[in-house]
Amino acid sequence: MVNWKYSESIESSEIVNIKKKYQNYIGGKFVDPSSKKYLNTVSPSTEEILSKIPLSNQKDIDSAVKAAKTGFEKWSSITPQERSQYLFKIARLIQERSREFAVLESIDGGKPIKESRDFDLPQVAANFFYFAGWADKLDISWSAKELKPYGVVGQIIPWNFPLLMLAWKIAPALATGNTVVLKPAETTSLTALHFAELCHDAGLPAGVVNIVSGDGSTGANIVNHKDINKIAFTGSTHVGKLIQKSLAGRDVGLTLELGGKAANIVYEDAAIDQAVEGVVNGIFFNQGHVCCAGSRLLLQESIHDQFIKKLEKRMQTLRVGNPLDKNTDIGAINSKEQLDKITSLVNEGVSDGGDLFQIECELPGNGFWFRPSLFTNVQPSYSIAREEIFGPVLTTLTFRTPEEAIEIANNTEYGLSAGVWTEKGSKILWTADRLEAGVVWANTFNKFDPSSPFGGYKESGFGREGGRHGLLSYLKASL
Amino acid sequence: MIEIKKTYKNYVDGKYVRSESGKTYSVKLGNEHFELPLTSRKDIRDAVVSSKSGFKKWNSTSPYTRTQILYRLSEMLEGNRKSYLSILQNSSFTKKYAEKDFENSIQKIIWFAGLADKWEQLVGNLNPVSGEYFNISHQNPIGVVFSLNKNTISLSQLILSILPPLTVGCSVISLSNDSGLLALKFAEDINNSDLPPGVLNILSGDFTKLIDDVSKHVEISLVSIHDNLSQEAIKKIEVNASESVKRVKINPSTEGISSILPYLETKTVWHPKGT
Amino acid sequence: MSKTALKANNSKLEWVDVIEHVYESRIDAVGLNERVASLATRSIKKESKLEALNMIVSMCDLTTLEGEDTKGKISQMSAKAVKPDPGDKSIPSVAAVCVYPSLVSIAKEKVKNSNVKVAAVSSYFPSGQVPMDSKILDTKFAIEEGADEIDIVINRKAFLEGDYRKVYDEIVELKEVCKDVHLKTILEVGDLRTYENIRKASLISLAAGSDFIKTSTGKLTVGSSRQACYVMAKAVLDYELWTGVQAGIKVAGGIRDAKDAIRYLVLINEEMGDNWLTPDLFRFGASSLLDDVLKQIRKLKTGAYQASYYFPRG
Predict the structure, then answer these.
(1) How far apart are CA A184 and CA A219, in angstroms?
(2) Which domain covers residue A195, as residue numbers?
């Protein structure tokens, strides 16, 4: 017997050039914020200050919206074929600069290079490719008479998949003929600001894509701007509700992609080893910073002990550490604030009476880290079973019958995603029909594709992103 | 000739009921006044309870059966053509207008009846995802829909504010004010149409007094407004709605496929393909 | 030099117990393929690579199973098994040499002063399409000739006809012949095709008393695969759960380079744990793999890519 340790295998960061200070991208120009204020952006894996990004104010948003209005005229005056070609061009440029973006994403956001390289960036390119082809086929996309873009779309995106969420927003918005003002999350703005350069290189007409960084106040300025025609937001349910409230009484379109607390139901007749993998992938992918994470494991009582044993063993093989190490499975928690939130919810789970299992591993000295965690012996009333933790923390509940599984699964205000594991086909369909969730993964989890619509039921938001259905989020209902 | 003056009641859970408040309001039809129930907060609550169970039943009814039940509704209306025409004509419409409105209503019901077993084919599709996966987007009805009828007396308008959500499997709470009498008359035909109790609840009253009760009720999934409300009222509805991410549709389309889209949730299901 | 005895699987499961598990063999192929593919993205460099390469050498069953095998060929191979790289004394001996029964005594003689074991394929390898009496005779002969380990094939005819009981009974009988001689049972995954079949055959073989389960004979175009190895690994772990016995896995057939072999090690390491990273529980059946591994070791030590003629023929 040996104790075989993998040596470090670090992806070189030489490929990416992080500037000392960034500018907004407005009307085809890189401009300093009129606020003259900046935010530090920090690497969550080292706590090192990487750069400064503009803290944009009302004036900056004014000029961005104005630029987008002008951009809309230009964008509307060219042919659908031309719009399509611009998007294809962007898709290609992303593929060409993919490694650079992947490394930057891992440095700035803390996610493992394995994921930014093999998941985020390929999906970013795929989204632009997919929607590029829709731009000149809107007339045959839905059996409807008239499809019209909204005009200027304000887009506010989260920090968990910074560039991918940008792609989910910008690609369909542009394909449907809108122009955008996009605000990346304040902790993860760098890839969006580099993407601005890419738009510039692609020769995209001025004002079609405007990228402004900032904090919550910047986002509020976008939402409250009088010339915004539509808001697309991905983030917490709390903020989503505030946005919906802010837009009340105004003729502004809105799509919301909010939180989740997905049930991942494992029946006793599942392919257990694949279910264990699916459960691990469901909650530990991207440090659990995933709105559709399978954060509630629903186990049939008859397999509980066996399953938990296998799950704990599998969890122990997860490698936590430097996001740029190619062998890292779990990177850094995105921010101190998020780490504190996770820690406090986990502490509450323990004091409520849940049994906590955490893997044994060394954590780096600097940066924000959290050990992959599993709660068993949890009652449905505990906060860890109800609130979105948005971290590498899985909560286990048990059920006896399929009916009971459905009741527990739907006993939440959220309805974004769900998982079901059984080798019995009819039980999959029966279960999928009854789950109140926008995405149901059967015998798999956390799968994404540009052609596959994504979005929630209930308080997980409304509207869909991706696929043919995703087009409707950016076309006025005057169909 | 109009039938003998009678007491109109709300139609909730398959039964004709007075408002629990005991309050009524008066509408004029021809030379006569009728008292209609003034729906209260508690009536809304009862209607939602009924609609929730109605939704379960209706959603598990086969599309083919839904088509037949909706078609039967048109037959019931046809059998009562005279009463509808007299209500419309007594509401100071010409005979020609009344006939046209009635004819239109029958046509619309039949159109939606025939859509009940087809719409999923028009709005859902397979998605060509990469990898060894079967991936399909299909639709579920959103749940309990509250629909505010337009405040003009028109049978076809009433039908169009109800049928789109009903067709896709939602249960509907319909509230009418000035057009309340026509709506409650319509309720009588529903009872003979085999529509399960709770699927369609029909109420009369003053929406402006019920805004909070409706738009704050978490178990109403969607509020659709077919009337012209003040900006202030709309804002109030939408502010309330934001507390539970409730969907609000202001004057949604009642034509074609776009008429049903607001009442649908897209559900995408993935499954691996392997041996 | 005395040879350390390998752990034996002495906790045979009765047929009634095993059949229940066999029929509960549920595997999702797509999920399994994805997991195996994701394990292949591990980046094994520097010291961890050298360590892996040395492990691979020590886990090799250096094999020749040809009609043209002669005394000379077996002698050459056995010498190489003991000292794989005469130029580098730090490199361990391989685990075993694997030959036909009639050549066991020659191999035995050549490895006698080392820890290298001699394995013989029997039970009418590779097809096994003979009466049971013949399989028993074949196996007895190999043991009498001095084999430390016996590699048998399962009855695929019976398996594919659905006669799982026959497959089980035959292995039980051969195990009785083998007694303490290490029994490795070849599933021939290329004939079984589906992952469920591989799992079923694994469980049957383990329950019948096999000390090792082995992927392939190396005689089919479809040899070992990491996917098949994964299925077998999970079956071995479940068997451990039920009986407490840790059985071994041998992968053979088509593993030609160090890179591929390292991926197998990663799979075993992460799915089973480093308990299994020992020649007692994990083996590579190989002929050409060893040379590539030796080349890679020298490349790591010298920084230069190597030519075949630096290494002796096996």
Answers:
(1) 9
(2) 24-258+458-476
Task: Give a yes or no: residue A450 inside a domain.
Answer: no
DSSP secondary structure letters along A99-154: HHHHHHHHHHH---HHHIIIIIHHHHHHHHHHHHTTTT-GGGTSS-S--EE-SEEE
Residue of A105, A291, A387, A465 with catalytic role: A291
Residue-number span of the structural domain to which C215 is assigned: 16-300
CATH fold group of domain B10-272: Aldehyde Dehydrogenase; Chain A, domain 1 (3.40.605)
- CB of A240 within 8 Å of a chain B CB? The answer is yes
pLDDT in tens, B185-217: 999 888 888 999 999 999 999 999 999 999 999
Does a structural domain hold residue A453?
A: no
The complex's ipTM works out to: 0.97
Task: Please report residues of A whose CB lies closer than 8 A to that of B253.
Answer: 477-479
Same domain, A273 and A247: no
Do A249 and A274 fall into the same domain? no
In terms of pLDDT, which residue wins out, C304 or A372? A372
What's residue A431's pLDDT?
98
The answer on A324 and A221 residing in a single domain is no
Low-confidence ranges of chain C (pLDDT < 50): 1-3
Residue bearing tokens 């500037």:
A19
Q: Give the integer Cα–Cα distance in Å for B129 and A246.
A: 36
Instruction: Verify whether residue C292 is a known catalytic residue.
Output: no
Q: Is residue C309 part of a domain?
A: no
pLDDT in tens, A278-337: 999 999 999 999 999 999 999 999 999 999 999 999 999 999 999 999 999 999 999 999
For residues A153 and A199, state if they share a domain. yes
Residues of chain B with C-beta less than 8 angstroms from the C-beta of A454? 268
Distance CA A414, CA A407 (A): 13
Catalytic annotation on A257?
yes
Our count of domains for chain A comes to 2
* Cα of B271 to nearest chain C Cα, Å: 10
Q: Which residues are within 8 A (CB) of C262 and not within 5 positions of it... i.e. 6 or more apart? A: C44, C49, C52, C53, C56
Residues in C touching B272 (Cβ below 8 Å): 28-31
Q: In 3D, which of C220, C77, C105 has the Cα closest to residue C153?
A: C220
Residue A292 catalytic?
A: no
Q: For residue B272, give the nearest of C30, C194, C195 by CB distance.
A: C30
Q: Whole-angstrom Cα distance, residue C153 to residue A396?
A: 43
Catalytic residue, candidates C85, C151, C291, C292: C151
CA distance B69 to chain A (A): 23
* Total domain count, chain C: 1
Q: Residue C179 maps to which CATH number?
A: 3.20.20.70
Are C55 and A7 within 8 A, CB to CB?
no
